[in-house]
């Protein structure tokens, strides 16, 4: 790959320079689509969070885990046949979209909210992998029970996020004042909150749960207020302009949801491959044609389920009831269970 | 053709030339320059056209139209009124003023601290000299970003919350929300105090001019230090007494935080401390080298005239040392201004921070980055111009 030294240079120069030089890298991407580039490289370049427990977080050995990380792994399993062939690029909220646009990463799987502006301005969103909402976390001993009591509060928030905008909207709509403290690095921001620099920490509710579970000195001292400030549909993102690659990412997520719906898990997938159910046959490649339509082989979804698991497994493993985050399925249950998770038919 | 004609002209000396030849250094240098310019132009054209094409392919709009749209985000510190309903242009202005504020105050403080440390390092007192040497070596060799995190950590983790705020003097509160001091409230007295201050400054300037002229004529000097202080501090004080005091806006704990008064936020304080301490270490070395550059004979001659040590430094050594000091110090001022962009890391809303957020909310990275570049280029060139002008003014004039 000729663009590798360029890419390494870009990372060092940061997002700003990256965009100016985007011409060089994106020029290569134009010649051969993203899929070819990934196959040639032998690895998927995936943009993830710098460290959000349950979604994208490196452990002490530098191994990445989380719901967003498993999406990267599923794509790598489908495309390269090995979920470990992923190179992770930790990105702050401010760097993430530029990194995607400049071609530094192939896919951004980093709790990014699907909005009109982002969708229209050079990006394409794959299906939502987590339906979230913005919440507010505060120390219990301040005695606050509702967001309506927060007039005059100091709020810690990450810059360049939809969260930052919703926060200003919410306080404006309720005729309240607030002082923002905006710090780009998430761990620095959390440290400032737990040191008492601000009264309130705001981000997606799932994020707050993760931070409370693993960063708070004493998780029981903090409470997440009942108000949900916004809808935050979090989805993987790809660059505009490569439809084939967009389809692959899109259907990787659908395959995970479909697998859960048909009861196909990483444990029983080999058995299910012999099933008589035509939907399952198409999903697992027993009936040919689905993979080739995407430019992959027919075992693509089989590998996703076998090597990474279905959506429900991924959810429970990373953020479910048995994890420190203890998140309910809620909106993220299958549509058959009253949730919003709905895989488009694979046929 | 021009080359050929010129070659025949009798004014030219050197070997005779035969038309245009690649052996002709003149032709070669012109050729190289054309080639280089062409290559640079080609690369620029390639980059620009490629970027434009990619932007169009990813349907990213370009242009500065977004500046009129409401920004939607709040900014923590502001010198001019600003709210989320204001435009991106206004947000940029808030960020720019924040950058200028920290750079201006930082430059003044770093100069003072740096000069003191630089002189202290040359002190004959062993302890003072070694302490300042240690300071310089330690500060200079630790990355600024780490120092900023250290200062910010000390201020936020080390200080108590607003409800347990320390109150060293009545009305002054120190907590992890910052330093709160009483500020001026609505009162006509403040206007007259400011006016008296202005008069004091003006009078001091005029008087010191007259004093200098008088010294030229008669050799007599007035104690200008005392007179100046009296005018600048005394006049406003007199006005204050005449009004019988001026109304103050006292900070008070209300709800989550203090309201009223003036605030020095931990973000601003940490950035300012960090920049001042870091830059002062470099300035100290420059001052030291400047002083050492002045021949020792000058000091001895000044002492022989019976001047006090303070006067030796102020009247003989420093004026000569300044010529060595000014140019490298200019670079340090530029560094300080540029380093202020590290504010992003500790949450001070400087221009880069606001522009970054704007890039993220609008997706207009090229415009945002171009604005950042334009702002820093303008500040740097202005600063450099000012310092160069000062440098020429104090340069040794040989007549």
Beta percentage of chain A is 15-25%
Note the total helix count of chain A: 15
Counting DSSP E segments of at least 2 residues, the number of strands of chain B comes to 7
Silhouette of chain B? globular
Q: Please tally the β strands of chain A and state the result.
A: 13
SS strand fraction of chain B: 5-15%
Structural class of chain B: mainly alpha
Mean pLDDT of chain A: 88
Global outline of chain A: globular
Low-pLDDT ranges of chain B: none
Biggest beta sheet summary of chain B: 3 strands, antiparallel
Count of individual helical segments of chain B: 12
Biggest β-sheet description of chain A:
6 strands, mixed
Q: Strand order across the biggest sheet of chain B?
A: 1-2-7
**Oligomerization state:** heterodimer
Mean pLDDT metric of chain B: 87
Overview of the structural elements:
The complex is a heterodimer of chains A (347) and B (399). Chain A is of the alpha/beta class and 347 residues long. In chain A, 41% of the residues lie in helices and 16% in strands. In chain A, the strands form four sheets. In chain A, strands 7, 8, 9, 10, 11 and 12 form a six-stranded mixed beta sheet that branches. In chain A, strands 4-1-5 form a three-stranded parallel beta sheet. In chain A, a hairpin with a 5-residue loop joins β2 (57-58) and β3 (64-65). The longest helix of chain A is centred in the last third of the chain and has 19 residues, at 243-261. Residues 1-32 of chain A have low confidence and may be disordered. Chain B is mainly α and 399 residues long. Chain B contains twelve helices and seven strands. A three-stranded antiparallel beta sheet of chain B has the order 1-2-7. The model of chain B has no long low-confidence stretch (mean pLDDT 87). Chains A and B meet through α1, α2, α5, α6 and α7 of A and α2, α5, α11 and α12 of B.
